[in-house]
Specification:
This protein is an all-alpha fold. Helices cover 66% and strands 0% of the residues. It has a domain of 54 residues.
C-alpha cells in the first residue's frame, strides 16, 4: 500500500476527526479511502448514465429537424427545467 501526505485547513481537519469520532471510521486513512471509493463510484455511475443516453440517442435515429430547431428545443427544455434564463 502506498503512503500519501496531505495538508488541509484546521476546519477540514476538525471535520475529518468528527467523522472518525462517530465510530464509522477507525482512522483517517479509512475515511479518505471511503471518500475515494465513493468518488470512483459516482464517476463510474455518471459514465454509465452518459453511455446509456448515447445508446438511446443512437437508437432513436436521425432527426429531420434542422440544427437550429434542435437547439431551440433544447433551450426551451432547459428553460422549463430552470437551467436557462432570459434570452439564452
Amino acid at each position: 500500500m502506498s503512503r500519501l501526505t496531505i495538508s488541509m485547513p484546521a476546519q477540514m481537519n476538525e471535520w475529518v476527526e468528527a467523522q472518525i469520532s462517530t465510530g464509522r471510521y477507525g482512522n483517517v486513512s479509512e475515511y479518505f479511502r471511503d471518500l475515494v471509493r465513493r468518488d470512483q463510484e459516482r464517476r463510474e455511475a455518471a459514465i454509465n448514465e452518459l453511455r446509456a443516453l448515447l445508446d438511446r440517442a443512437e437508437e432513436s435515429g436521425v432527426s429531420d429537424r434542422s440544427v437550429a430547431e434542435v437547439l431551440e428545443a433544447a433551450r426551451q427544455e432547459a428553460r422549463q427545467k430552470g437551467l436557462l434564463r432570459g434570452d439564452n
